[in-house]
Amino acid sequence: MSEPGEDQHYFSVRPTSPSAERQVPLVLPDLRLALVTDRGTFAAGGVDPGTKLLLLDAPPPPAGATTLVDVGTGYGPIAVTLARRHTAAEVWAVDVNERALALCRRNAAAAGATNVVTARPEEVPEDLVADAVYSNPPIRIGKRALHQLLDRWLGRLAPQGRMILVVHRHLGADSLQRWLGGGGRPVERLTSRAGYRLISVGPTP
Ligand SMILES: C[S@@+](CC[C@H](N)C(=O)[O-])C[C@H]1O[C@@H](n2cnc3c(N)ncnc32)[C@H](O)[C@@H]1O
After folding, report:
1. Does 3.40.980.10 match the CATH number of domain 47-201?
2. Distance from the CA of 138 to the center of ligand 1, in angstroms?
3. Which stretches of the chain are assigned E, i.e. beta strand?
């Protein structure tokens, strides 16, 4: 869960806080990365525990997946990990925060993840179809904006696609899960640990 204060404006398009880059480790059973972070980006002090839970417990994309998406990529822990794990897929790393996108590009290059495509939301092709979407979503943008964002990406899922979200219960995971299940979407709680919920949701029928 994000710390209040330092990263409360992590979703600014152009953060104004002076740069203070640092390197943080991301250690997973299959992968060890050193990621550059900066002020004005989410979890600049270290990879968020929810993000780590997602990377440990989320199901892999369907076999043969060619298009994966990390919605709200930040400095790229999810996108870079997906890209290293699924080298045949293209991984779209989408964010509004230009400082975060620049870091994600650098982190992908440093990790040799040549299959990461960074993009602002408006740069994503209208006809992009996602085999899987993974996200630690920007809860702090507010419920209405968050629902619009998730609706948009649920509408881009392939018929067998899944969106996997990690959300802390203190940030409204349970009400978000109820909303996701509305309108007949298949929704499932995959993991619940240390207050974090890992939620899987299928496309809008
Ligand atoms: C909770 S952070 C997660 C960052 C990163 N995935 C991680 O796990 O460290 C959510 C991210 O969503 C981004 N964001 C906010 N609004 C967005 C939007 N409309 N489209 C895409 N990303 C957005 C924020 O800038 C922020 O980087």
Report:
1. no
2. 5
3. 22-28, 31-37, 67-71, 90-94, 116-119, 130-135, 157-168, 187-193, 196-201
